[in-house]
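Bench log. Compound arrived from synthesis this morning; before running ITC I wanted a structural hypothesis for how carboxymethyl coenzyme *A sits in the protein. Inputs:
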Amino acid sequence: MSKTAILEIDGKKYEFPIVEGTENELAIDIKSLRGDTNGITTLDPGYKNTGSCESAITFLNGEEGILRYRGYSIEELAEKADFLEVAYLLIFGELPTKSQLEKFHNDIKAQSHVDEDVKKIIDGFPKSAHPMGVLSSLTSALVAFNPSSVNVDSEEEMYNAIVRILAKFPVLTAWAYRKRVGLPLDYGDDNLGYVENFLKMMFKKPSGEYVSNKVVVESLDKLLILHADHEQNCSTSTVRMVGSSHAGLFVSISAGIAALWGPLHGGANQAVIEMLEAIKEDGGDTKKFMAKAKDKDDPFRLMGFGHRVYKNFDPRAKIIKRSADNVLDALGIEDPVLDIAKGLEREALEDSYFVDRKLYPNVDFYSGIIYRALGIPVEMFTPMFALGRLPGWIAQWREMRLRKEPIGRPRQVYIGEKLRSFKDISNR
Ligand code: CMC
């Protein structure tokens, strides 16, 4: 028998269906609430208790530390799949066959050019511009050069827009970096894999060949897989919200990049390394910074700790921590900041402040250490997160459009002034 929830207001009872997900998650379906109750709404700042959609893409259980894409565990995907396969899986729902993957990759390669006029836009940015801002602007500017990507009424048009953004986004990411460091903008090489090609576009020196390093390619591939989707997080919800007005895929992604930029979201990976560096510079006294993080009068937070959904270990952090050790080992790098990070983690996991609040290391705690070992500079950490999250944003946007979801438009509880009369400026 299907479950229902009863809500009682002023003695009157209202009944709402309870929806059950495939992993037995329960949600009270309040679609009829305002109509039934003559305008009563719900209030849930930060949407801590609100499901904004039904989705078949990613399953996350924060209490048990589970993350799955389309039913496959993140642990298995990180070990056995490559990033492009995972992108296909997220977007289209199934792992690709060999020929499907080949076609997908070839379609991407065929679109990997960016209009030369985009370089003029890049020229207009100061070198000091943060690459996330540059990336968000360029992704939005791409619409002007690909106007057909806006109206996607058929699945074919949608596919073309998806392949275009997957092809051009790594170019823009690499260009945002090259502009910052004063390197000439470069194109990729169709003979290389998706991730290897991105690394070539980032790091090829004008005077020399790009020499690929297997450890670097595989580590980055794994990191991108771990970042590829995370259900209805801040940037993904932004992508779905913007997309719900049918504004187009590229601008929806551009808005997602802006949301990801913030230090409470994707920007945390940059903030973590800056924090670890600051602790090192200060003499390495982790206890002092732990005390600051616990002090309610101090705005300092232990960056890379805590998560809205995970109240247990972030499964991505576990994989990344192991990977950080392996990558540094394989590349023969010693990074004192890794020891500071491990020390902080040890202390936090034994400290009642963090234990009681269920604050564990999240995906950003160790990822910066790997990025740094791979030669990726700090200000590019969040763009790397964006590159990884791109397939997830696309998958969520596509799902939203195919399910013909209504435009996102939350309600509010108004707490401002009641009606009052306009005062002439001389009387204010
Ligand atoms: N350091 C110190 N205290 C913390 C931290 C932290 N990193 N995170 C949460 N708290 C405390 C917070 O002060 C609050 O304490 P109290 O109950 O006494 O007021 C309690 O823990 C609950 O925190 P909250 O801010 O209500 O939790 P939230 O779900 O709104 O925020 C968060 C989640 C990720 C924004 C937060 O944990 C945070 O700011 N972490 C640091 C930034 C960070 O690492 N962000 C990356 C998130 S993972 C990547 C991604 O998906 O974007």
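What the model suggests: Residues 230, 233, 264-266, 268, 293, 301-308, 357, 359, 362-364 surround carboxymethyl coenzyme *A (CB under 6 Å). The chain has a mean pLDDT of 94.
ITC booked for Thursday regardless.
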